[in-house]
Amino acid sequence: MISIEGLKKVFTTTNNQITAVDDLTLDIKEGDIFGVIGYSGAGKSTFVRLLNRLEEPSAGKIVIDGQELTALSTNQLRITRQEIGMIFQDFNLLWSRTVKENIAFPLEIAGVAKREREDRVLELIELVGLAGRENAYPSQLSGGQKQRVGIARALANRPKVLLCDEATSALDPETTNAILDLLVDINAKLGLTIILITHEMHVIRKICKQVAVMEAGKIVEQGNVRDVFMHPQQRITKKFVEQVMGTGNEHDGVEELINTYDSGNIIRLHFVGETANQAIISRTAKLFNIDINILQGKITQMQQGAYGTLFVQIDGEPKEIARVINHLRDETSVEVEVLRDVE
Amino acid sequence: MWNSLFPNIDMQDLWVATYETFYMTILALIGTFIFGILLGLLLYLTMDGGIWQNKVLNMIVASIVNIFRAIPFIILILLLFPFTDFLIGTIRGPNAALPALIIGSAPFYGRLVEIALKEVDKGVIEAAKAMGAKTKTIIFKVLLPESMPALVSGITVTAINLIGYTAMAGVIGAGGLGNYAYFFGFQRREFDVVFVCTVLIVLIVFLFQFIGDYISNKIDKR
């Protein structure tokens, strides 16, 4: 769907050159939600703006849906841009226009007839959940509502690609979640490809399927979100994963746990994208004649299911406990580590 | 009562003079608005990082604006006599004042327009570009509407300047309240005429200020 080859952007100031995006090569599949994460100054914002040539690339090739964007004339580019939606951190709505008129703006640009425009606007207002606020001005809306207008506006011309430039960074956590849900919903309903840049790992965790980690203009790590979460390779990636998963020092309290709970087995369950058996704990407790006591842990939900660690104490006949462990190992995708065996 | 307080006022003359002041102010204001917007847009679009970035053109426009703003208005009128004569066919009367009034105030308003346009959120312009807007669309659907309250308060300030200019032009024969006050009041030592003209001019200024503020507030949805 989108293929990027050797993309480069160099900013020249009076006395030095800054390479914001450095020889980037990337493929993004159709219908994907592709996240790019990095700290400010990593070049991710420049990267997303290169994709619709708001910044002119210094070198490299961008092909979107078979069309080589980097080879287009200014005029052709203008028309192609109508098929690439974009939403912004600061929403960038026209304060002089109402919600309806803001959403109609890209349709006016594309030369859609008035009647058709009105129908499409109403459709979009419905889609983003802004019914009843059609005639409000942006100054009368909350941040989340403003971003909904931004999304509706970006979708007006039925784009194939949606670029999100820190789209939730100006919103509070609850609103962020609502907007992210809306993006997932749109991705599923309309099948459009979403490229999202952010500095918040929980945004990646919540909605992305693929992730690329950017540092100093380069992609240092890339892959399936679950894989990156499970096995972060780079130092920077580990730091991002810690943002949502904690510092990874869960072993700190293990000795204490083992000392405090002196009966039964203590085992560690590692959830890696478990989706099929959501009720593992309660089911196991029903299936076997044992007691399960949850000691500590952290589970988080990703697009591909649950991910995290749980420490549990299993009390019962040693034989029964052994059967439980075998069951967990064989029947579920949970990784089991026995920290203390009664035998 | 009126006749004893203002013995030298001829209502017919006063009415004509007031009408001429309005006539000059409003026509000159329309001209100033058009040329000022053009100058302001040109300054804004050709500036460093602008859509039509062009150092040379920007410098030329800026120089013209600065030169005409530097010339005192009364001298500008004298300087423009040949031009006015060529354009209007006379150098007397309200119509003859129009070229000087417009040339005198358009550069000033042009600067105000430039400032107003610079206040438009860069992000909104970028969003319009990302939607594939033409420069024409950006000018007429983003830049001008988004800066409209500032453009209106700018034209209000300019209008008040213009009323002052019409009075000055009146002194050298353009008609209007300035003309009436000078020739019928000052030169004949009939100061009640000067007084009444002053009051009327102040009222006209208040009227323009009021209308300008009202419109500016009405259209500002921020």
Structural class label of chain A: alpha/beta
Look at the structure and name the CATH superfamily of the largest domain in chain A: P-loop containing nucleotide triphosphate hydrolases
Rg from alpha-carbon coordinates of chain B: 20 Å
Instruction: Assign a percent range to the helix content of chain A.
Output: 25-40%
Taken as a percent bin, the fraction of beta residues of chain A is: 25-35%
Order of helices and strands of chain B: HHHHHHHHHH
Helix and strand content put the structural class of chain B at mainly alpha
Describe the model.
With 343 residues, chain A is α/β, with parallel strands linked by helices. Chain A has helices at residues 44-51, 74-81, 99-109, 114-127, 143-155, 173-190, 201-207, 225-230, 235-245, 254-260, 280-287, 318-331, and strands spanning 2-12, 17-28, 33-37, 59-64, 67-68, 84-88, 161-165, 193-198, 210-215, 218-224, 265-274, 291-302, 305-315, 335-340. Chain A folds into two domains: 2-236, P-loop containing nucleotide triphosphate hydrolases (Rossmann fold); 250-340, ACT domain (Alpha-Beta Plaits). Chain A is built from twelve helices and 14 strands. Chain A has a six-stranded mixed β-sheet, sandwiched between helices. A four-stranded antiparallel β-sheet of chain A has the order 2-1-4-5, with helices on one face. In chain A, strands 12-13-11-14 form a four-stranded antiparallel β-sheet, sandwiched between helices. In chain A, strand 1 and strand 2 (17-28) form a beta hairpin. The longest helix of chain A has 18 residues, at 173-190. Chain A is elongated and about 75 Å long. Chain A starts with a strand and ends with a strand. The model of chain A has no long low-confidence stretch (mean pLDDT 89). Chain B has 222 residues and is mostly helical. Helix content of chain B is 83%, strand content 0%. Chain B has ten helices and no strands. In chain B, helix 2 (11-46) runs antiparallel to helix 3, helix 2 runs parallel beside helix 6 and helix 8 runs antiparallel to helix 10. Chain B is elongated, with a radius of gyration of 20 Å.
